[in-house]
Amino acid sequence: MRWPLGVGDPPEPADPFHLLHLIRDVGSTLAQLREHRVQVAAPEVEHALPVGGSEVADAEHAFPSNNLPAGRADVLHRPPGLLLVRMVAMTTSAHDMSLAQVVAVLDGFYPPETAASWDQVGLVTGDPAQPVRRVHFAVDPTRAVVDEAVEAGADLLVTHHPLLLRGVHSVATTTAKGAVVTSAVVADLAIYCAHTNADIARPGVNDALAAAAGLPDDCAPLGMEDGQPIGRVGRLPEAVTLREFATRLADALPATPVGVRVAGDPSALVQTVALMGGAGDDRFGDVRAHGADVYVTADLRHHPALEAREEAGDGPPYLIDAGHYATEQLWLAAAASRLAEALQARIVTHVSDLRTDPWDFTVGRPTPDRTPQYSRSSRES
Ligand SMILES: [Zn+2]
Fold first, then answer.
1. Which CATH number is associated with domain 97-198+330-351?
2. How close is the Cα of 136 to the center of ligand 1, in Å?
3. Ligand 1 is a single-atom ion; what residues have CB below 5 A from it?
4. How are beta strands 190-193 and 156-159 bridged, if at all?
5. Looking at the chain, which residues constitute the CATH 3.40.1390.30 domain(s)?
6. Ligand 1 mean position to 248 CA, how many Å?
7. Tens of pLDDT, residues 313-348
8. N or C: which terminal CB in the chain sees fewer CB atoms within 10 Å?
9. CA dist list (Å): 233 to 240, 274, 286, 291
């Protein structure tokens, strides 16, 4: 499609896109666009554009790989120091997906009825009729994540963890949750959560973790909850030492300041791996029932973890606490590309750059590798 060019060209009413704002101040233009909630092409696209092209078609041709759906607003530099902005109309065009359409696809990936009975999943904010062109993915709907999504021009934020799990009586900005809800509503940002329904889905959160652990695609469920299969168990192609397995896993997961904690003999061989992204210290019975050599999960509390190690008599199953955020974060990219593929690139997806692991740093002396407290005291040797 070719677009008319020139100063003062009027928008064509018959066209879903209003064309041609030729403005002299780049900064104010971007600000105005944001004020009017118009999507602006990503900065890297701006920089990729050839300066001085005489046809918009040239510019479109310059970034075919950026996967921008037809009709997105783009910023085109024009000399001398001018900026040509091609704007998306504020009405939904035939090219736009509605929030309802995108949610229907997400619900198909992660059926809400498969979520745990205590969970709260699905749409938190948003109007099903609103257009969705840019979708942001994050583990947690924190204030910083919502700010990031709004800054990125997202229309929809998909998170793993629910925003409102317990009763809420106010969404005033006087609380963190209220500020998140208010920010999202003010910015027309829809929020959608896929939590335990994404944990159990195939492919879902635990499949992304299983892939990071080097397990094949055909892992079995670790256990059942509310009639749904949860967690995964699978076998590595060959046995490796616990240290080697944990090191490979740590390399495959996003880094966290707390690192990966391991309980067990670092030289012991492991092959059967049980795993559950997020908090999983209530599943030791399932882990033992599967004869797993090692259990990868997060949020391992002192008493359940110590009791599980005592029960194991210093042998398998060994334990790896890889961090709650880290064990769930890899799902984001998988979910984002699956959604983009399902919608045939009519949306743009982005995975949050923010690490929402609550911990920031560690201090103190690391202990020696192996000091099992329950079988013998290391001080005696
Ligand atoms: Zn979680």
1. 3.40.1390.30
2. 18
3. 278
4. parallel
5. 97-198+330-351, 207-322
6. 22
7. 989 999 999 999 999 999 999 999 999 999 987 899
8. C
9. 16, 4, 10, 10
Ligand 1 centroid–CA 271 distance in Å is 25
pLDDT category at 166 given cuts 50, 70, 90 is confident
69-92: pLDDT as tens digits = 333 444 444 444 344 444 433 334
The CATH number that domain 207-322 falls under is 3.40.1390.30
Residue 226 pLDDT greater than 50, yes or no: yes
Provide the sign of the torsion angle of the four alpha carbons 121, 126, 131, 134, taken in this order: negative
Please, are residues 109 and 100 in contact by the beta-carbon 8 Å criterion?
no
Centroid of ligand 1 to alpha carbon of 338 (angstroms): 20
Which whole number is the average pLDDT over 174-201? Answer: 96
Centroid of ligand 1 to alpha carbon of 209 (angstroms): 12
Residues 314 and 291 sit within 8 Å (Cβ to Cβ): no
